[in-house]
Amino acid sequence: MAALSEKLKAKVRNRANRLCEYCHTDETWQYVPFTIDHIIPVSLGGTSELNNLALACFHCNRRKSNVLIAVDPETDEELKLFNPRQNIWNEHFSWSHDGLQIIALTATGRATLVKLELNRERVIRIRAEDVLVGRHPPKGDKIQEK
Ligand SMILES: [Zn+2]
């Protein structure tokens, strides 16, 4: 696979407002730059066009790997993973009122949340610190009422 150009990577990054497009962690405050995810993996025929790329933190990218399908824990139904180019984050997820947990609003959300471990322990600790300094949840994200 040809390396993505810096220009293309910058476009992906800016479009995402530097958020991982799955767990909405802000890259700005992380030690390691986020990765560029091929939503449909190259190994399965995905392209390196903007409409197949997403900004993803290392963990989400690793968990996603070359998987496109995940299981809804409530119904055991197999569903496509949340696709940041086709699905709107706020329609599938919201934040718990304290900003620590991602709440799945749909079957796709539930399947993706489990598959990518969107509420993994380490990221919850980061969210807690970011809430304290007022930089989490990200602007525009839906937050559950108490
Ligand atoms: Zn992530």
Task: Explain what the structure shows.
This protein is α+β, with helices and mostly antiparallel strands and 146 residues long. The protein has one domain. 29% of the residues lie in helices and 14% in strands. The model has no long low-confidence stretch (mean pLDDT 96). The structure holds zinc ion. Zinc ion binds next to helix 2. The site of zinc ion (ZN) has 8 residues, from helix 2.
Radius of gyration: 15 Å
* Overall 3D shape: globular
Pattern of helices and strands: HEEHEEHEEHH
Low-confidence stretches: none
Strand arrangement, major sheet: 1-2
Helix content: 25-40%
Q: How many DSSP E strands?
A: 6
Structural category is alpha+beta
Strand content: 5-15%
Q: How many domains would you count in the coordinates?
A: 1
Bound molecules: zinc ion
| N→C terminal distance | 47 Å
Q: How many strands, which pairing sense, and closed or not: the largest β-sheet?
A: 2 strands, antiparallel
Mean pLDDT equals 96
